[in-house]
Amino acid sequence: MSASAPGRPHPAAPASRALAGARPRTFWLDPDVVGHDVPEAAPALEGAERAELAVVGGGFSGLWSALIAKERDPGRDVVLLEARTAGWAASGRNGGFCAASLTHGHGNGAERWPEEIAELERLGRQNLDAIEDTLRRHGIDCEFERTGELAVATEPWQVDDLADTAAALRGLGQRVRTLTGAQTRALVDSPTYLGGLLDPDGVAMVHPAKLVWGLREACLRLGVRIYENSPVRGIRREHGGLRLQLRTGSVLAERVAWGSGAFPGPLRRIRHYVAPVYDYALVTEPLTAEQLASIGWQGRQGLSDSGNRFHYYRLTADNRVLWGGYDVVYHYGGRVRPAYDQNPETFHRLAGNFFATFPQLEGLSFTHSWGGVIDTSSRFCAFFGTAFGGRLAYAAGYTGLGVGATRFGAQVMLDRLDGADTERTRLKLVRSRPVPFPPEPLRYAGIELTKRSLAAADRNGGRRNLWLRTLDAVGMGIDS
Question: Which of 177, 405, 459, 461 lies in the 20 to 30 Å Cα band around 253?
Answer without folding.
Answer: 405
